[in-house]
Structures are given as C-alpha cells and as structure tokens.
Write a structure and sequence with these properties.
Number of helices: 11
Strand order of the largest sheet: 18-17-19-20-27-26-25-22-23
Number of strands: 37
Largest sheet: 9 strands, mixed
Shape: elongated
Helix content: 10-25%
Structural class: alpha+beta
Distance between the termini: 39 Å
Length: 641
C-alpha cells in the first residue's frame, strides 16, 4: 500500500495525546455521604473495574478513529502495475486510407476509430497523432478534435515498416517514460507479411477493427481495345471480391452528359465495352452503383485530340519502305530524305530522327542532331555495313551512349529480349523464350552492353538505348540481316516512335510519378498550371522548343479531370484516378505477432493503457472505518457502565 500524501502520516504522532489524557487525567471525585460502609466498599470495587475497562475501550476506539481519519487524508492506494509511476507517452497512427471506408458496427472503420478516440482519451492528455497525410506532435485531443472530425481519406497508405519508424521518432528522448505506440488500421493483405522490429522501450499495440463488408466491385481500368477511322472501342475492366453479381450497370458520361449504359455479370472480373467516335474529344467518367467501398465506383479518363508524331528518316542509298509501313499516316507524319537533299531547318520540328545506314555523320549534321536531342528529340541510329566510326562515336559520346568498336564478320543470332527495358514495357503479353531468331551477317560491337534492348546469343547487344537515343549494332538491309522480317521489328520501332512524343494517356494514377508531355510553345517567362476552377497548382515542368513536360507525384490528391492551362488558355485536360490497391478486402492475421498487444477495439486498448497507470484508492474504506469507530465510541460511552 502506498500514499498519495504520505507527509500527512506524521499526524499519527498525535495519537499520543489521548493516551496522555487517559493516563494523567486529574478528574476530581465528589464525596457522597453513605451510612453502610461495607456496601460502599463493594460499590467502589465494582465501579473501579468497569470504569477502567470503559476507559481502555474508549481510548482504543478514539485512537483507531483518529488513525483512520489521518490515513484517509493521506489517501492510501494500491497500484495496479509496477510501472504506474512512470510518465505515459502515447503516439497514435490512424490509417485513413480508402480501405477504411469499409463498414463496421457503427459506420465506417475510420469514423469508428475517431469516435473511440474522442470518447475514451482524456481531452487534456498529451498525445502525438499521425495519419498517411498529416502529423500532429505533442498535442491534446481537445486541440485535435476538429481535425479528426474533418479528416479525409487518403489514396495511399504508409507501409508498415515506415509506420513503426515514424512512430518511434515522435516519442521524446526521456528514457524513464513508458512509451505506447498504437497502430490503428485494417491491415490489408499486402505482398509481404507484416512484421515489426523488437524494441523493449516501446509498448506496441495494434488495433484492427473488423469490417462487416463482404463484397466490393471496383472499376480498375479503361483502355482502347479497337480503333478504326470512325470509331474506337473502350473496354472497362471491373473486378469483384465476394459473391457473383448479375446485371451490374456501368454508365459512361462525357462531362455531365450520359453517353451510354452497359450491364454485365461479374464473378471475379468482367469487362464492359463502349463504342465512341474516333474524332470525339471526351472528358469521360465511368460510374457503377455498388454498396461496398465508394471511392472505386467512379473512374475518370480523357480522349483528347491526337497530334501526329513527326518522324524524319535520313537515308544514304538504302531502302526505307520498312519504316513507312510502321510509321503510318493514322498516327505519324513520316518524311524521308536522302542525306544530300536534306534541309537541316526541318530537323528541330521533328519528334524522331532515324539515321538510316549513313556511312558518316558530318559535323553540321552532328551539331544539329545534338541540339535536337538536347531539346527533347529522339534519335535512332542504324549503321551501314561500312561506317566512319569516329563520326558516329562523336555523336554517341555527346549522348552518353556506348560507342561502336570494330566490325565483326561472324554471323550472329538475336536471341535475348530485355523485357524490363522501358522501351518494351507492356509490349508483350507474355515472355517468349523460344522464337524464330533473326540473324545478322556482320555487326559492330558496343563498348558496353548497358541499356541493351535486344542481344545476341553471345551476350553482346544488338540494340541499345536510353533517354531518347537508340542505336542498332548492325545494318538492317536484306543482304545483312533478316530482322526486317522478324515480328520484333514492329514493337521495337513503333514504341520508339510513340515514346518520342509522350502523348497524354487516357488517365494517370494518383501517388505515382507521372511524366506528361504537353504540346505547347511557351514564352520565356510562361508556365503551365494544373488544376480545376477551385484549386490550381504549378507542377514541376521542363520546357522544350515544342513541348512542355509535366512531372506529377503528390498532386493532385483527389480524383477527377484537371485542366492544363497557359494563363487562361486551356491546352488540354488530364484525368487522375486513385490507385485500386485499397479495394482489397483481404486482411492480415496479426494475432500471431509476438510481443504485440492486439485488439479489435480502440476503446479496449485505451483502457488497457489507463489501467497500467491507475490505482485502487482505499481512502473511502478508512473513512468508513473512522465512522464505525466513532459509532462504537458513542455506544461505549452510552451503554457501558
């Protein structure tokens, strides 16, 4: 037993006062005349015995009464735990990702957690709180209440390792305090199981509220399936977690105008198809009605006017028909000139320059090409069988590309495809390990095989490239190679052409790095803005002679259609959507984590923390005892003769 005010126990020394009074009382007795002396002696003897007993019982009850009163004022208690005297520090992580929209017992999981915090944390208790988007250090619930009520969902979630590290950083350096880290999340099933490092200085408490949601349908993506001169087919991919659903309606809007509706049956996944005009400019919005998570029921996309990509082939004495068949008029503006008839003034206006088997590169052409490359243009080099190595290597050196070495006359087969190269991303449905290998009769070796796209069977590169500069190691004419007849030539050259002008995609994902090229010629001090009528920001941008490249990661934070403006002029519309990772209804089983407290209710966790710093107060019992002894004393004085 311990005391809240132990200094008051010194008052117990006052118990000596009633002892002194009882031992040294100077009470005078009144003489009474009585005739029978024998009877008087008997009365005196009986009276003295009963008087002594009454005195000692009264003394005892008074001492116990005073002792109980003094002890009650000292407020005795019994602590619930050994560390009750330690200063309590509490850091709370509140997961506000979109998966916390799932319905619990009393509304969404996020709202349940917020209400538990408001109802169970003392208003003036110091805590630190962080979410996926905000951090509040060393504040109180009273100051946080409005922020919690207005807390919005976030499209991204911190990974679990980052949660633990960030939580540790919010604690003070006081080693004597008891540190409680509370992580409130639905703990969605991610790629890796959740584990936390062992730290004896931190009491880690996990709160995993349970969702009553058992089914969720989401719009995952949209893509162009087929396209012709008049129409294009938009395929909408849907996914479902839960029981199969029949006849779910998908609506297509252009701004606020309903264009079409489609109904599909879905088990695990399904697709809905819409046909729209190939010439139409659409600010699209797809909508489904689903009782599950709400954030993934809408999907935004844009179909903008499509500028043609300008491709210029510079030839020596070779055929370029294979280039014409790839860079067709529906997507490209293809031009071809002999080196002797080339007007250098048209080079800056191009997006892709193909050096088709030139024997050498003049200083004037090299200077123009370097300037073109520095301005964001793409260059593809196809060497002839006999070239001036020095002139080629000079332009390679300016572009940080591996240089040509000596010519080899050994026949080689092209056997390796680098599927991880950015040029071939999403170019193949599956990886092919056995195909009809193209071959070359003669080839140049590169000084390095870094950034290889295609390689020979001996490991040397056939095609290398990065940052807008690509180079073949061999001539592609029919006498030297059959690569022009290989299926590989189409995706390789087509993707080089498509990437030379980064046309805006149908949509972009929020929270991921996006690089977006906008066709615009800006003045020296002009900048582009991205936003809506209510909110506008200036994204990171790089200005070239014909385009401006926007780079976005953290903005926008909300899904929707946004305007790209040069002052008041709208140049283009861009759509951004939330990542669909939060649509997953599979959750981790965190109860197997050792040295971790796991609860489904935040209220239970808060009460556990409180109990470690609370006490069993005993002062009321001592007040009761004092009253009991007071009553006993009154009864003794009244009835004991």
């Amino acid at each position: 037993m311990q005391f809240k005010h132990p200094e008051l126990l010194y008052a117990l020394f006052l118990l000596i006062v009633p002892i002194l009074i009882h031992l040294f009382q100077l009470r005078r007795f009144q003489k009474v005349q009585f005739t029978n002396v024998k009877f008087l002696k008997a009365v005196k003897l009986q009276t003295r015995k009963s008087s002594q007993l009454k005195k000692w019982l009264t003394l005892l009850t008074r001492m116990l009464l005073l002792a109980c009163a003094i002890i009650a004022f000292a407020q005795p208690f019994i602590p619930n735990t050994e560390d009750f005297n330690e200063t309590q520090e509490t850091v709370v992580y509140l997961d506000n990702s979109y998966s916390m929209q799932a319905t619990g017992k009393n509304g969404s999981l996020l709202n349940e957690a917020i209400q538990d915090m408001i109802n169970n944390f003392p208003e003036d208790e110091k805590i630190s709180l962080f979410t996926n988007t905000q951090t509040f250090r060393n504040t109180s619930l009273k100051a946080l209440k409005n922020d919690l009520i207005q807390l919005e969902h976030s499209p991204t979630q911190l990974n679990y390792d980052a949660l633990f590290i960030k939580g540790k950083e919010l604690f003070s350096k006081d080693k004597s305090s008891s540190k409680n880290l509370i992580l409130i999340s639905d703990f969605q099933q991610k790629d890796n199981p959740v584990t936390f490092e062992t730290d004896s200085t931190i009491n880690l408490k996990l709160v995993q509220p349970k969702s009553a949601l058992v089914s969720n349908v989401s719009i995952d993506s949209v893509y162009v399936a087929n396209s012709n001169s008049e129409t294009l087919d938009l395929n909408v991919k849907l996914s479902n977690q839960g029981e199969a659903i029949e006849n779910i309606t998908v609506s297509l809007f252009n701004d606020d105008v309903l264009l079409a509706k489609n109904a599909v049956d879905i088990t695990e996944s399904s697709e809905a198809t819409f046909s729209v005009s190939n010439e139409a400019v659409i600010n699209g919005k797809l909508v489904i009605e689903d009782a599950g998570l709400q954030y993934d029921n809408s999907f935004y996309f844009n179909i903008n006017s499509k500028p043609k990509i300008k491709v210029l082939a510079i030839n020596e004495n070779t055929d370029d028909n294979f280039l014409k068949r790839i860079y067709t008029d529906d997507e490209f503006e293809y031009n071809s000139f002999k080196i002797n008839n080339l007007n250098f003034n048209i080079i800056p206006d191009q997006n892709l320059i193909v050096l088709n088997e030139l024997e050498s590169i003049s200083d004037a052409l090299r200077t123009t090409l370097v300037s073109f490359k520095n301005d964001g243009g793409y260059i593809l080099t196809i060497p002839s069988k006999e070239i001036n190595l020095n002139t080629y290597n000079q332009i390679f050196n300016n572009s940080n590309t591996p240089q040509y070495n000596s010519l080899s006359s050994q026949q080689k087969r092209i056997t390796t495809i680098n599927y991880n190269h950015p040029l071939l991303a999403n170019a193949f449905y599956s990886k092919v390990s056995n195909f009809q290998y193209p071959k070359v009769e003669t080839s140049y070796s590169f000084s390095s095989n870094a950034n290889s796209v295609l390689s020979y069977e001996d490991g040397n590169a056939f095609l290398v490239g990065s940052n807008g500069f690509y180079a073949f190691s061999s001539a592609l004419n029919d006498e030297n190679s059959n690569f022009k007849n290989s299926p590989l030539i189409v995706p390789v050259l087509y993707n080089i052409g498509k990437q030379s002008l980064k046309l805006p995609q149908l949509y972009y994902s929020i929270g991921q790095p996006n690089t977006i090229a906008i066709n615009a010629v800006l003045g020296q001090d002009d900048i582009l803005t991205l936003g809506t009528d209510e909110n506008t920001v200036i994204p990171l941008q790089k200005t070239f002679s014909k385009t401006v490249v926007l780079e976005t990661t953290d903005y926008p934070v909300n899904a929707g259609i946004f305007n790209v403006k040069n002052e008041s002029e709208v140049l283009q519309n861009l759509s951004f959507n939330y990542n669909r990772e939060e649509s997953n209804l599979s959750y981790l089983d965190i109860k197997n984590n050792t040295n971790v407290s796991v609860n489904e209710s935040l209220a239970t966790t808060i009460n556990d923390i409180k109990s470690s710093s609370t006490i069993n107060a005993l002062w009321k019992w001592f007040v009761i005892f004092a009253l009991v002894f007071l009553i006993i004393e009154i009864l003794l004085l009244k009835y004991l003769k």
